[in-house]
Every structure is written in structure tokens, then in C-alpha cells.
Amino acid sequence: MALRRAASLLLRPRLRAPVPIPTPKTPNPLLLPPRRHFSQLPPPPVPASAAAAAAAVAEEAEEAFEAAKGTKDLLAAFSRLEAVMPPSDKRLALACIKLGQHLEASGAADPSRVLALALRSLGILEATPNSATSTTASHSDAVSLAMALHLAGSASFDLSRFHDALSFLTRSLRLVSPLLPSSSSAAAAFGDDDAQGFDVRPVAHAVRLQLANVKTALGRREEALADMRACLDLKESILPPGSRELGAAYRDLAEAYSTVLDFKEALPLCEKALELHQSTLGKNSVEVAHDRRLLGVIYTGLEQHEQALQQNEMSQKVMKSWGVAGDELLHAEIDAANIKIALGKCDEAVTVLRNVSKQVEKDSEIRALVFISMAKALANQEKAGDTKRCLEIACDILEKEELAAPDKVAEAYVEVSSLYEMVNEFDKAISLLKRSLGMLERIPQAQHMEGNVAARIGWLLLLTGKVSEAVPYLEDAVERMKDSFGPKHYGVGYVYNNLGAAYMEIGRPQSAAQMFALAKEVMDVSLGPHHSDTIEACQSLANAYNAMGSYALAMEFQKRVVDSWRNHGPSARDELKEAIRLYEQIKIKALSCLSPENSAIALPEPLEKEDQKLPYWPPAVVLVHLLLPRQ
User: Fold this and answer.
1) How far is the C-alpha of 241 from the C-alpha of 276, rounded, in Å?
2) Contact 19, 55 (CB under 8 A)
3) Each residue's pLDDT tens digit, 392-442
4) 184 — pLDDT class (breaks 50, 70, 90)
5) Are the CB atoms for 409 and 401 separated by under 8 Å?
6) Between helices 139-158 and 201-217, what is the axis angle to 10°?
7) Exposure pattern of 562-581 as b/e (b: 16+ CB <10 Å)?
8) Mean pLDDT of the chain
9) Which segments carry the TPR repeats (predicted)?
10) CA 416 – CA 429 distance, rounded (Å)
């Protein structure tokens, strides 16, 4: 809506200003050249009266277009405007933007028609001598072109042409960024008078928001979050401090962070939303109920289940006081049951779920979710038979919903597969994950989930000994997850680690060492060097070098494993013993390789105590080893 107001503001002074028509001078008949039958001179100027009439018609058409409100009136007024305006008139370009924005917002036209209007506007604006791409561009020229690019990007997004949308929107952002109030170059480039009376921040916000949508659809979640954060910063500068819309913006960003499992970033944002809504709307408002429900999800992700349950119960209480019923309240009750399961209160959870099941239709999606949560409670109670029966019922319901809600069904299949894992039904779990992946690949906005599902399939195939099948899934998962979450996300590290294990199983230790090294590098950054999973990645790297016969490198990384487990203290006593044993084993192999005929004499005494320091390995020995051919 703000963007449409911006278009109207730009359009108004342009449409109302008539084109100045100079009054032609009467030529002196004595100075005229001899008359020729085929004259190469231009036609005589239009008489002033005819020009004035044309200008009046154009002005009337402009005013009618500006005053039009509904779709039908706008289309009729635009047709009249087209008939009286030159095709390269900048005012026609602005009218294309206004009409395109209206058609997009109202859903009254196919996105291809909106795209055609945007491209037509772009063609006119870019061909104008003082277009935004030139050094003499005005503030309004740049904003006009930015809005046309935004409209083209938005229409391309609706047509699932995501790369085209990204190109249009990136260009648009490049134009509006220097014009923002915080930019010191804005005033210098365009002057204060030109910027007066027009705020470019709503345009920048619309561009950023659509960029976030496009990047999410492309699976580039981390970049999308950066754009959403920029949207919030713009809203904070635009909206008054107590605005309800600002509270919703905090919650939207918190929800986005929760989607990528970054609950630490999500928590303070959701708390800000709650604080703002409580101060402006009261403690019992529906907005506060929404905030508390999301807080419950965030606390669950942080494994603070007591706080999660408390927020969930408060949310339900507010919704019930307002008479909010239906799916939203039922989802909140299912969330509460899942939290109780995490707290070990499985019987209470089952009671809640049975109550919910009585309130829903037989083949509804919510009933499927009820049976999934019921299966989770039963699996935690080690009731495998009952768990499988609940999962079968859930799958029967979900299968009927595949066409209606493919994204939700695909996500539910992933959760069902994890429960089949709990009861050791690995083939069934793999089958459901493959089915989910096939559905996700047909949903452009779900690319961020594809990598997770492919990684899960690869891990289960590896676990069940189907290593050759696992490798392509894991290789695919690495690339997808890097695109979606960035190369240093901890999830990417785990996939590298599993891929390294698969390469070891099929006799490719060099490839395995590369994967383990990448896994360790990612986990050092995302989890820290002393995290247990980072240490395990280092152990895997030492094992790979050991298998290759690169004993010097194997000992180096095995020593790091020993030192890391020692830093964990008494809680890692068993892990430390095993790490020392492996270190001694590698050292024996290294010494045997250096002097095989005297290996029995050269064996060192094994380490008996965990607090004993590892011996220093002389650099000369390492150098000799590196010069020897690998086995």
C-alpha cells in the first residue's frame, strides 16, 4: 500500500503538468525559399489552437486516470490515456506503474500482464535522456525507475521466474539505497529541494521485502534473513515507537530465525514484540497470544521446556478469553502436547491429544498431526506396535492431502520418518523421505528443506549399509545446504562428516580426509573447537590419514583429539582413554614403517595415565616419514 501511495505521489505532479507548446511565429513571405514539389522541410507547426486542444484532452485524460479507483475504471482511463499520449511519454510510464501495482495488489490480472506493464514502463524510463542511469538524473527519476524494477521483480516472482526477479530487484535496491535519509550521498546527488515531500523508505522496504521472498524461494535463507533485518530497520525508522505494525515486524523476523533453527536470535525479537503489544494493546490481546505461542516454539528449540509450556498455556488462555477457536487454538493444544512429551509427561500429552482428536474432522490435516504427536508419545514409552498404528493412520490422511497442501504434507512426512527411525523401521523411513523430497523439488519456495531431507536420506542409507546409494544423496545435500544456509552452517559440517564416513566405507580415504577436514573447519567456526562433534570430526580426520598411511598427519590430529578430550575433564574420561589408545597405535605403525626390522626394539612404553603429557615427536622423524612413499 505504501508503494502504491509513492507511485501516486510521483504521478500526481507529472500528470497534472500540461506540456508547454511554444507559439509559432508568422514567417515573412518575402524570405521564404522557392516552393518545390517535393519539399524536404518538416511539416508546418500545429496551430496554437490545435495544440491547446490536444493538451486539454491529454490533461483531462490524466485527471480521469488519477481519479479512477476500481479496476474497471482504471483500465478504461488507462486506455484513454494511451490514445492521447505519445508512446515515449514519461507520464505514461508512471501510469503503467500505478496500474500494474493496482492489478498486482488486487489480484485482478495475470502476473504476465503486470510484468508487461512493468517492462513497458522500464522501456520508456530507460530511454529517457535524463534517466536514473545518467549522471544528471533527478531523485524522482531514480525512484520511478526503482519502482518499475520492483514491479517487474514482483511479477517475475509470481511467475516463478526467480532469477529474473532477483536481477530486477537487485537493480532496484542499487537505485534506492543512495537515496535513503541515512545516505550522505543522497543530498549531494539530488539536492534537498528534489527530495522534499517524498519519503523513499517505503520503496526501499518494499524492494527489500520482495528480495527476501525471492531469496527464500531460491533457498538462500541466510541472505533472506539479512534483507528481513534491513526491512525491520526501515520500519523502525518509519513507524512511530508504539506501532502495532512494528510489533508484528519483530515477530515476523523472530519467526524467520526460528525457521532456520536460530532460536537465540529469535528470542529477543519475539520478546520485543510481546513487550510492545502488551504496552499498546494490553496483556490479553490476540497479538499477545500470537507472541506467546511463538515464544513457546522458541523456548522448545532452546530446550527450555518448562518456559515453553508456560508461554503456551498463557497463549491458550488469552485465545479462549477472546473466543478464538478453530485451527489456531487446536494447533496450540498440539504444541502443548509436544512440549509435555519433551518433558516426559507422555500420559498427559496423550490425554490432550485425545481431546483434540474429538474436535476435528476425520480426514483433516490436523487429525494427522494429532496422530503424529500421539505416535511420538507412544514411541517415547517404547510402545512400538501402537506407534506404528498411529503412523499408518497419519500417513493415510496425509496421502489424501498431497495435492491440496504439498508443502505441509512433505514436512509432515519428514517428522513421520523420524518416528519410524525410533522404532527401527528404517526402510519405511527412507521411503517416506524420498517421497517428501520428490514433493519438495516441485515446490520452488521449499528449496531450503531439500538439502535437509537429502542429507537425512543419505545418513539413513549409510546407517543401513547402503553406502553406494548414500553417496549421491550426501553430495547433493552438501551443495543444497551451502546455497541455503551458507558454507559455515553447522548442518553443512555434519553432512561433510557423513560424506567422509561414506568415502571411507567405499575405500576412498583421500576423499574422506578432504571431507573430514571441511567438516572440522565448519564445526570449529559454528560449534567451537572443543564441542564433542568437532572433536569427533578431528578423530575421523586422524583415522583417514591413518588409513592412507600418512602417520605424521594422523598423529598430529590424534594429539589434538587427546588434548580436546582432556580439556573436558572427568566427564570425558572414557573418550580420553580411547583417544590415547589410538594415538599409541598410530605411533607404533609410524615407527614400524621407519625401521621394520627393529620395530620390536623401537616400541615406546604406552601411556598409562590420562593426565600424562604426550611425548614430543621430533620434526626430523616427521620429515623422514613425509619423504617415504605412501603405502
Assistant:
1) 9
2) yes
3) 999 999 999 998 889 899 999 999 999 999 999 999 999 999 999 999 988
4) very low
5) yes
6) 30
7) bbbbbeeeeebeebbeebbe
8) 82
9) 247-280, 410-443
10) 8
Q: Read off the pTM.
A: 0.74
Mean pLDDT of 525-544: 92
Q: Tell me which architecture the domain covering 487-592 has in CATH.
A: Alpha Horseshoe (1.25)
Cell readout for 123 is: 522501456
Residues 6+ apart with CB under 8 A from 202: 2, 3, 5, 6, 238
Per-residue pLDDT for 180 more than 70? yes
195-234 pLDDT per residue, tens: 445 789 999 999 999 999 999 888 888 899 999 999 999 9
Rounded CA separation 258/490 (Å): 15
pLDDT at 623 exceeding the cut of 80:
no
Asked if 586 and 555 count as a contact pair (C-beta separation under 8 A), the reply is yes
Q: What angle do CA 215, 263, 478 make, to 5 degrees?
A: 50
Backbone angle region of 372, left / alpha / beta, with phi > 0 → left and psi within -120 to 50 → alpha: alpha
Cell of 343: 518433558
For residue 27, the model assigns a pLDDT of: 45
Residues sharing a CB contact under 8 Å with residue 265, sequence separation 6 or more, in sequence order: 257
Residue with cell 497470544: 289
Q: For 559-616, what is the HEC assignment?
A: HHHHHHHHHCHHHHHHHHHHHHHHHHHHHHHHHHHHCHHHHHHHCCCCCCCCCCCCCC
Sequence length of the chain is 631
Cβ burial, residue 561 (10 Å; 0-12/13-18/19+) = buried
* All cell numbers assigned to 121: 514502463
Q: Could you tell me the pLDDT band of residue 129, with boundaries at 50, 70 and 90?
A: low
